[in-house]
Every structure is written in structure tokens, then in C-alpha cells.
Amino acid sequence: MARVEGRYGLVYTTDRPESAARFDDLVSAYLGFGRDIGDRLKALQADDPDMPLAHVAKGYFLKLFGSAAMSARARKALGDADSRFAAVAATEREKLHLEALRAWCADDLDRTTDLWERILLDNPRDAFALRLAHFNHFYAGEGRRMRDSVARVLPDWQDSDPDIGFVHGMYGFALEESGDYARGERYGRMAVERNPADAWSVHAVAHVMEMQGRHAEGIAWVKRHEPAWSTTNNFRFHLYWHRALYHLERHEFAEVLALYDDYVASDIAADMYLDVCNAASMLWRLEMYGADVGDRWKGLTEVSLRHVEDHDLIFVALHYLMALLKGGEPEAAARLAAQLEGFANSAATQGRVSARVGVGTAAAMTALANGDPGAAVDALLPIRYDIWCMGGSHAQRDLFEEMLVSAAVQARPQLARALLAERTAAKPQSAWSWRNYAKALRAGGQGAAAEAAEKRAEALLAAA
């Protein structure tokens, strides 16, 4: 089989020269959260069924669904890829991609990511490997590795490269997740100026504004670029989630619920895990903030019942558990929690995550749902500094810190006072934190300090 050079000097094994360009376009669509990624791949494979890397790509995209059912299909794609690779002399880069898929299907996420990073050493403009490594670093909670992964390849990218904006956006988000907010915002804005439809880059800047408590700016930023990013796939609902999170911080519950109904949970039936994570975390937060969410857990529960056996990503499984606990499915919730505990004995990467934080977090959420905040504190407090390893962003994982704080306010006010001293120092623009700080201070007999904390909360809300 022939070899054809595509974009950025990347070489593909194929007898159809146009397949290289089509594969490059597929990768660009993936970077931009295009709605036609599946259609592009199907068309490519229909016209070029022997292109080996296209079979690997199919396996990758199936694994990105993060479910047991799609993982089974990914293993089938791996078998098809093995057959194609056995029949051709593929490039070393393509062979490494095949091995990365093999490791991913074996639940060895560490080796999977290492293989993508090996590809990038010799092929720093392999945007597919770069974005996939970015994804795995993210769901390992490794902000610094995510940052350094992009930094290593940046010098090899040119301003004239069609995908350079996506690379800048990845770097911006990674900088934010590693605490460099100023540079993170600069790279994110640079990427959005180049391509306003780059949802990941809009989202990178949104994260900076969330971390810095710039809620009004965040609402304006997300709304201003909505006409462009709202054309993307279901990732657009995550940007609506960000906007809702700003409104939640301002205690504008009616606006949050409207965004939830109109966007965040509008396509829950499509069964995409990010949609469930967005929706479940928002409903749990709303209830902690004292809002009535009505029967909104119902739709999430119906989807989550399909995923009781899933453990591709512990972060995601915990959000399914939220829905089951809150949606009146205690038996299914218990099965999922037991599944996490059983999986914690495995050697899989996410099995180690389950052992380290998944089991304890599941126990804490179960205790909260059962009205036992003391047990929730006992489960969460010992693992609070390890929660990062379940992945997700700082903003997403903050929910588990809020759970701990909320439980401590109810059951351990002295601990709550200490936790909220930390929290208000780190998040001085959080009215919810100041209000809870006031409760803990008052429970400890510190009336004057409690009154000052309440005034701080009211001032933040009045200025919103």
C-alpha cells in the first residue's frame, strides 16, 4: 500500500491520495467539536476501507463515549485495525496509534497517554495525538502534564497552520488548570480571536473567569460568543453550564433553571456523559444552594440506569450515581457503588482512581442523600486532597468540596468554620461560601464575625 503525505508532513498509509486530506479534515472537525465527525469517518471508511489509521480513529471515537457499550465496540474496531495493519507496511506513527488504542481498550490509560506523547516527540504537529493526550491528562486531573504536553510542541507550530488556534486554546485551558490564569486567558482569547467558533477556547477563558470570581464578565463573555460556539456538537451544552454556574454564584436561580431546561439538559436522551455530568452537578448544587429543582432528576435517572456497570471514567460514574441517589433509585445506586468498590481491586488505571477516591466519594454522596452529613464528612475529609486524581476541571471538582463544606456545616460546625476560612480566602467572591461561613461562625459563638460574613455575602449579591 502506498504512503501519502498529508497536512503538517504527516504520512498516511493509503492507496487513495485524497484520504490523507480527508483524515486531516476529520481531525480538524474533532478539534472544533464538529457535529459531522461521525459522518466524516463513515464516509472515509466507505471510500477507503483499507486505510489502517481510519480504523484506529473509529476505535478512538468509540472510546471517547466513555461507556461500557461503546468500549465493547471499540474492541471490535481494534480487531479490525489489527487485520488492516497486518496486511500493510504502516508507518511507525500509525503503529504507535494502534498500540495506544490497544492500551486504551485494556483500560491502561497511563500507557495510552504515554504512547501519544511518544508520537508527539517525532510528530509534534500530530494534532490528533495532541488532543487525545490533552483529553487523558484532563481526566487524570493532571493540569501540569496537560500544560507541558502542549508547551513541548508549540515551537513546531506556525501561525499559518490551519489548526494553530486549537493548539493555542488547548494551551490556554491547560495554563488555567495549572493556575496560570493570566497566560491562560491570553492564549484563550488569542484562539477565539482567530476562530470564534472554537468552543474549547471560549471555555478556557470561561474557566479563568470562574476561578477568579468574575461572574458578570463570564456571563458576558459566554453570551457574546454564543452565535459561533452554539453551532458545535453537544459540547455547547457545557458552555451553557458555565453560564449557569455564574448565575448560580449570583443566586439567580430562575435564570439557572431556565438555562438548565432550555440547554443544559435539553438533549439528555442522546445519552452523552458530559451532558449528564453538567446536569447532575448543576442540580446537586442548586439543591445545596436551597433551590427547588422540581422533578428534574427524573430524566437524568432514566439515562443513568443504563450505566450502572460503567467505570471507564470514575468522574463520570460518580455523576451517574448522583442521579440515581437523587432520582429515587437506591438499589441501582447501591449496585453502582458496589461496582466501584469491586473495580477498585483491579489493576486498571481507573480502578486505582476508584480505590483512591471513587469509593469514598460514593460513600459520602450516599450518606448525604440519606440525610447523614456526619458520615459524609467522615468519608470525604480523608480524601479531599486526592480528589484531583478523578479528573475533570477545578470548577467541576469544586462540587465535591462544596459537599464536604455543606455536610460539615450541618454536622461539624467547628470543622466547617476552618474549611470555610480556607474557602473564603480562595474564593472571596462566593456569596454561598460567606453565608455558610456565617452559619459556622454563629454555631461556634462568634456572633460578630458571623454578622460580618453575612454582610459580605449580601454585599456580593447586591453587586451582582
Task: Looking at this protein, list some descriptive labels.
464 residues, globular, mainly alpha
Largest sheet: 2 strands, antiparallel
User: Structural class of the secondary elements?
Assistant: mainly alpha
> Which runs of at least 5 residues are low in confidence (pLDDT < 50)?
none
Strand order of the largest sheet: 1-2
Radius of gyration: 23 Å
Tell me the total number of β-strands. Answer: 2
Order of helices and strands: EEHHHHHHHHHHHHHHHHHHHHHHHHH
Please indicate the percent range of residues in DSSP E strands (runs of 2 or more): under 5%
If you average the pLDDT, what whole number results?
A: 97
What is the first-to-last residue Cα distance? 63 Å
Number of alpha- plus pi-helical segments: 25
* Mass-distribution shape: globular
Helix content: over 70%
Structural features, described:
The protein is mostly helical and 464 residues long. It has 25 helices and 2 strands. The chain has helices at residues 17-31, 37-47, 52-63, 68-87, 92-105, 109-122, 127-138, 143-153, 164-177, 181-194, 199-211, 215-224, 226-229, 235-249, 253-264, 273-288, 297-304, 314-326, 330-343, 349-369, 373-380, 394-411, 413-426, 431-443, 447-463; strands spanning 3-5, 11-13. It has a two-stranded antiparallel sheet. A hairpin with a 5-residue loop joins strand 1 (3-5) and strand 2. Helix 2 packs antiparallel against helix 3. The longest helix is centred in the last third of the chain and has 21 residues, at 349-369. The protein is globular.
